[in-house]
Amino acid sequence: MPPKPLDYESVNENVKKAQYAVRGELYLRASELQKEGKKIIFTNVGNPHALGQKPLTFPRQVVALCQAPFLLDDPNAGLLFPSDAIARAKHYLSLTSGGLGAYSDSRGLPGIRKEVAEFIYRRDGYPSDPELIYLTDGASKGVMQILNTIIGGPEDGILVPVPQYPLYSATIALLGGSLVPYYLEETEHWGLDITELRRSVAQARSQGINVKAMVIINPGNPTGQCLSEANVIDILRFCYEENLVLLGDEVYQQNIYQDERPFISAKKVLMDLGQPLSKEVQLISFHTVSKGYWGECGQRGGYFEMTNIPPETVDEIYKIASIALSPNVSAQIFMGLMVNPPKPGDISYDQYFRESQGILQSLRRRARIMTDGFNSCKNVVCNFTEGAMYSFPQIKLPQRAIEAAKQAGKVPDVFYCLKLLEATGISTVPGSGFGQKEGVFHLRTTILPVEEDIPAIMGSFKKFNDEFMEQYKDQRGYSRI
Ligand code: DCS
């Protein structure tokens, strides 16, 4: 009998090749342990509400009213909801044709795309065209749509940072394209070196790969760095010279924990550069409601903006978006609210400001406590989390630990993270899930546990780590490096 179409050996090889470590072996083991009754601290996913972050009040009020529009006719509505939330709910309902239960245009509701364009204009100081903004179910779907538009086969290459967020490696594998890695420099705060980019492109081209796109993640996941303006200029010049479309993953643009390098969008830098680059370099920028002080991961709201993309291509992207009919409509409303929050003078402004700044300031403190905590551990070095939601310490594993991992049939950092999980309940993602230089090991944690819990979490990490290092220490010291 030949195998059936969905027997394992018949499954699309690209599906088998695609890997996504954020919900990989470690996560599965953590879920098992949780079922057995062990207390697990899930720091593997940047999922703020799952770790106790409270939703901002105003957007939930507006979306609640949009979901239950009959409340708007209730005489008590004004007692339960502030008048600006009621007004905003009416505004969004008027943009839909049939409320939240109806499909919208496949690109998203025109009125919300306009609000996004106005946000981009306020942020960058350059006009943005709502026709070139598409709303998506989270940034992930946008990234997948765009990679799908670029990749036609194994000869199509995408430059991706290493370490990277595995949405990119997994999607490239799924689409049968080629990932072209460029390495970020850990000793330079995970900076991006143009010489390294040139080396990487030259090598890929010598192997017959047509390098078409470059991905940047700014602020970085898992690495937490914020790109300087000078760095973004170099990247855009590089894309111009090498004829690459730049995919700017800017989902963490609200998550900034230092003042030296505020977030600057690739779009703004491109426009600042003027012609010819501002008219020539193709750029797609991604954003989401999942991150920042919103953290509304479960709502699945996102957008991408296209710059210098010809209308025929925009139409093709529209056609592909149409196959999925419509992005989530309630998520579109979250996006509208995120880009157009209450303003000073609005009834809900003070509460919105207090809540959002409270979250941001706490994340800033948590970034500091976690970095300092990791750096106080034996054989652990960690760059400061300048932005995003993660700490990515390097773990200098002794040779004996590497050998023990081999014997257990595990990659060394997976071995370390599994032991950490079993000993402490802390669920992390091994650095190998994001890519790292040969022979160097990391783990990623989020900085999201509630602030009061972090000292205890770092305390139990330190105890585990220092005992691990003692147990496996080499004859001549702790580290083989
Ligand atoms: N881009 C980056 C860099 C991300 O880190 C994520 C999510 C996304 C895009 C997609 O987010 P949404 O689809 O929700 O908009 N980050 C995952 C992570 O590393 N942990 O949690 C989710």
UniProtKB/TrEMBL annotation:
GO terms for cellular component: peroxisome. GO terms for molecular function: alanine-glyoxylate transaminase activity; glycine:2-oxoglutarate aminotransferase activity; L-alanine:2-oxoglutarate aminotransferase activity; pyridoxal phosphate binding. Its cofactor is pyridoxal 5'-phosphate. Keywords: Aminotransferase, Pyridoxal phosphate, Transferase. Residues 83-447 form the Aminotransferase class I/classII large domain. It catalyses: glycine + 2-oxoglutarate = glyoxylate + L-glutamate; glyoxylate + L-alanine = glycine + pyruvate. It holds the Pfam family Aminotran_1_2. The keyword Transferase applies. Pathway: Amino-acid degradation; L-alanine degradation via transaminase pathway; pyruvate from L-alanine: step 1/1; Photosynthesis; C4 acid pathway. The keyword Repressor does not apply. Signal peptide: none annotated. It comes from the Eukaryota. GO terms for biological process: photorespiration. Belongs to the class-I pyridoxal-phosphate-dependent aminotransferase family. Alanine aminotransferase subfamily. Homodimer. This is Aminotransferase class I/classII large domain-containing protein. The lineage of its organism: Eukaryota, Viridiplantae, Streptophyta, Embryophyta, Tracheophyta.
